[in-house]
Write the structure tokens for this entry.
Amino acid sequence: MLIYNTTYVLSEEDLACFLVWVRENMMPAVHADGALSNGRLARILSHSREEGYRFCLQFNVADSATLHKWILRQGRQMEAEQSKIFGDRIMAFATLMEVVE
């Protein structure tokens, strides 16, 4: 089992819109596709001294081949939608992790 994690860095002015977009658009669309599961959004607290907010959005995925197909089928579309809404005001980077225990 793998975890596909995307970390987002955003300003306070984008916070409310970002949360609505993730909860009402991104998570339902990803879950409807079926390739990724158990989506969860968490606020990162370890960088609280720095300005802005940091969140991680995580989904379980069976293997890297399934993830690659999802990225080609839907992931790039989600990224384009995010860029259209937020422009360069939100920074995002993805990490693929393997569940050990």
Remarks:
- The chain has one domain: 2-98.
- The first strand starts at residue 2 and ends at 10.
- The mean pLDDT is 94.
- The beta strands are 2-10, 37-43, 53-61, 91-98.
